[in-house]
Amino acid sequence: MATPLTDHTIYQKGAQVYQNQPKPGLWARIAQVFFSLYALSFYFFLYAPIVLVVIFSFNVSRFPNNWAGFTLDWYVKLFGDYAIGFALKNTLIVSISSTIISTIFGTMISVGIERYRFRGKAPLDALLFLPIIIPDIAMAIMLLAFFVLVKMELGLSTIIISHVAFNIAFVAVIVRARMASIDPGLEEAASDLYANEWRAFWRVTFPLLLPGILAGALFAFTLSLDDYVITFFTSGPGSTTLPVRIYSMVKRGITPEINAVSSLLLLASMFLVPLSLWLQRKGDDT
User: Of 94, 98, 223, 269, which is least packed with CB atoms within 10 Å of its CB?
Assistant: First the structure.
């Protein structure tokens, strides 16, 4: 008669299998150490400059290569700078507006491509990835040429249109991934319970799709908040955003004030991107 497996016996069998495995040789251990050090040096090369920017934003001295003590004066001066405040207001207007528009259209495109069959679906699916593939500089030149062709005055409206043009693709990719994980049988069950197509979408599909929509919106807001290349080409007088303002300040030299505003942008991105990833993971678990 076979003895029933318990947690203790399963643990013992697993430990026995692990102990019986052959130990890695000398060269395997050397390779493991080498690749571990390589990974650490790679991350150090990427993130050490970012850490230095944050540290020197609290430096008393204006010179970036001389640490003279800790201070918060640069952050206080930053919040009292009218030009920075005006650029921040433009950035928020552009980011919020483009995020709302791109989230609505990106969600509609995702639902349409994933749930319905229509003529021209394959070309539309291919065109959806173009803003992700095309380099920023090429897209900026094309958008500028388009606005000049239609004789549209450059300003906040052209920046918003440009941000919507590339944000829709990112929102659609995220929402579509969430849409693909939703069982169509749930909508069919709602239809069997006498719910029309519109009611089934709002009562069944939309609540399940909401984490993906919010994740796509946060990702679009982050991209719009940090964009410089496309914004620079499509902006006009009085429509300077924060990244463009930072670039104009850098031309006069790196100062702790620039480090401070860069640190605040970094903090915003570090908050929004993990929140977007958390929403996507939460949606996958439901």
Answer: 269
Do 249 and 258 form a contact (C-beta atoms < 8 A)? yes
In angstroms, the CA 231 to CA 243 distance is 9
- pLDDT for the residue numbered 100: 94
Determine the Cα–Cα distance for residues 202 and 136; give it in Å rounded to an integer: 36
pLDDT at residue 22, rounded to an integer:
59
Q: Which residues contact 31 (CB under 8 A, 6 or more apart)?
A: none
Structural domains for the chain? 75-285 (1.10.3720.10)
d(CA 68, CA 58): 10
Q: Average model confidence (pLDDT) for the chain?
A: 79
Name every residue whose Cβ is closer than 8 Å to that of residue 147 and which is 6 or more positions away in sequence.
154, 158, 234
Mean pLDDT of 245-266: 77
280 neighbors 215 (Cβ within 8 angstroms): yes
102: exposed, middle or buried (C-beta count within 10 Å: 0-12, 13-18, 19+)? Answer: buried
**H helices, E strands: number in the chain:** 14, 0
Q: Global pTM?
A: 0.72
**Cβ count within 10 A of residue 96:** 14
Q: What is the pLDDT of residue 1?
A: 46
Predicted pLDDT at 71:
78
Query: pLDDT tens for residues 85-143?
Result: 888 889 889 999 999 999 999 998 888 887 777 787 778 777 888 888 888 899 999 99
DSSP string, 11-57: HHHHHHHHHHSPPP-HHHHHHHHHHHHHHHHHHHHHHHHHHHHHHHT
